[in-house]
Amino acid sequence: MGYLILGVAAALIGGTSPAAAGMVQPPPAAAATEPPRDITSILEPIIAKHKVPGMAAAVIQGDRIVMLGAAGVRAAGHPEKATESDLWHIGSCTKSMTATLCAQLIEDGRLNWNTTLEQGFPELAERMNPKWKRVTLTQLLTHRAGVPHNLDQDGLWGRVWNSNETPAKLRLMIAEYLLTHEPGYEPGTKYEYANAGYTLAGILAERAGGEPWESLIQRRLFAPVGITSAGFGAPGVPVVISQPRGHNAAGAPVEPSHDADNPAGIGPGGTVHLTISDWAKYIAIHLRGDKENPRRATRLLGPESYDALHTPPAGDYACGWSITQRPWGEGRVLNHNGSNTMWFAVTWLAPKRDFAVLVACNIGGDAGSSGADEAVGAMIREIQRGAPAKGSP
Fold this sequence. Notes:
alpha+beta, Beta-lactamase, 13 helices, 10 strands, globular
């Protein structure tokens, strides 16, 4: 049984959402000791309307969480409440994390934005389809590398899904097949969203960093940012509902298992889970690192690296970020969402206004995307009203 991670949702980047209209001011600065405002009461009617089992959300201003809340339950039909400290699967929002890891290795001198697949996979040089040889890391990270959207060629996806190999070996299985066959399209000629492009980028990072992507990103990215809750795949354990569970299309909870997430081999493109507060720590470094933030203060990476990560080579997709325009952000904003069909997560960053919104819920499909979209709009309206950083709405 297989689930493909969904890409950036058209509804969320197309201007049709409640978050698409209206000029706003950033939330007023709060004292450093002031706790975030509890927004649970804002989320509760939204999850009821959209039949979302559970949801967590946060608003950050600069590097501080100013609004935070969780509503609903961990699993439909069960009493355990969703909490702010629960783990949420963020799907393709993992992509910018992998791109950030690559930028760290570039600053180390171990990789280059122009590192090619021929350089990265010398053992495949003789068998590699010539069209792949000059494909660069940047093209992989911006979905312009020729990588096909799906991995269903010659039963590849089924083999990956059913394999018991380690995640690193699964990635090599994918790479060997792709690079010895014709690309899905002429590399460099167009944008086509492809999770496997991040699988290849993850291998380049592994080889440059000298360890599997999972441990490398924990050590190089998560630990320095202060993220302690991050893991991979569906959170929690079977039987005991200690964490939220993803829900299938029928709205039934799915126990953590082999079938509860995409194969671990495509981790660099979408298998991270973490708390909403830890995710906010990561989002904060990109919010403050962006060139248009008037309070720009780069951490972890230098300014040039954030510029490279946030600038599309063409079109509107950069390195794990969709770049679009919103009046409430005074122009340019960053966005991405993720879903393995059983979870949905989305984040919007408004660098000029120095705030960002994050939402995660434990169901995918229309329920997850529409519920998260309405939650984003509701929080932006709260910011627009100049709501205080704490207290009831």
